[in-house]
User: Which sequence fits this backbone?
């Protein structure tokens, strides 16, 4: 089905992003959308799943075809401009590598934007951006592309992050495709793989603009010794325990040395953090 009456806010039409646009003309080979300051933009029949009519609104992704003309599609790419994603290299040519991002025209990574020469068939973390020639391209040089804008986050603000690297202290993450942040290992109750996307919260912005992140909503006890003890217990028992918040106070006290009330609170915190799941007959480490 076509994505009619999109929920995205109207505004300036942005290249490399999904925009809510109005159908202004129907032609034999597709539809023309009102691209505002960019003019009318073709939405080919091949990019439409059902019939449209003039004045319909659609959520369309705007990019450029092989002849450098603006074109629209109702397909959702694997990443948009300003986002970081893990994409597979489908070809390497004399001008750079091309990545599969879910659209007919593949995404270029110029050689100058590769930290190492890309190889066909391998996946890479890349940031999508619009270059000086007004092309949508990608770069693996995240250090070059991130943390260039002023830091303007508020404590406890929710942000989108992508895990970029493991470090001795925890995880290096890209925030909103614009800044670097750190998740400390002693505040994360599950292993995070490179490329993992999730919501996080700003813990604090340091004087040097370094940003500390939290996976859980502020107010959660991040130095919860009991939570760490429960995680350790689960790991020692193949990730599963029949002891849960439904177990007797005696069993909980014998194994963890705490009251059932405190144990239940810690289980609840781990559940909210996504570290465990509660099953019918116990709890399981995710």
Assistant:
């Amino acid at each position: 089905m076509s994505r009619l009456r999109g929920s995205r806010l109207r505004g300036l039409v942005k290249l490399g992003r999904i925009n809510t646009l109005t159908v202004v003309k129907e032609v034999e080979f597709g539809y023309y959308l009102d691209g505002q300051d960019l003019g009318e933009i073709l939405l080919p029949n091949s990019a439409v799943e059902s019939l449209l009519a003039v004045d319909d609104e659609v959520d369309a992704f705007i990019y450029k075809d092989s002849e450098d003309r603006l074109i629209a599609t109702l397909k959702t790419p694997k990443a948009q401009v300003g986002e970081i994603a893990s994409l597979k290299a489908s070809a390497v040519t004399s001008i750079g590598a091309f990545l599969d991002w879910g659209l007919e025209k593949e995404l270029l990574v110029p050689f100058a934007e590769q930290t190492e020469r890309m190889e066909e068939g391998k996946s890479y973390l890349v940031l999508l951006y619009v270059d000086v020639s007004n092309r949508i391209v990608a770069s693996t040089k995240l250090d070059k592309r991130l943390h260039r804008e002023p830091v303007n986050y508020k404590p406890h603000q929710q942000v989108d992050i992508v895990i970029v690297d493991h470090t001795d202290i925890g995880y290096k993450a890209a925030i909103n495709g614009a800044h670097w942040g750190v998740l400390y290992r002693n505040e994360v109750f599950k292993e995070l793989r490179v490329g993992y996307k999730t919501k996080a919260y700003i813990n604090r912005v340091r004087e040097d603009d370094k940003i500390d992140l939290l996976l859980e909503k502020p107010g959660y006890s991040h130095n919860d010794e009991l939570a760490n003890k429960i995680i350790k217990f689960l790991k020692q028992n193949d990730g599963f325990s029949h002891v849960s918040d439904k177990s007797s106070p005696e069993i909980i006290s014998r194994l963890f040395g705490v009251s059932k009330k405190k144990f239940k609170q810690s289980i609840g915190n781990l559940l909210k953090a996504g570290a465990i799941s509660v099953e019918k007959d116990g709890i399981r480490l995710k």
Q: What stands out?
A: The radius of gyration is 24 Å. Residues 260-272 form the longest helix (13 residues).
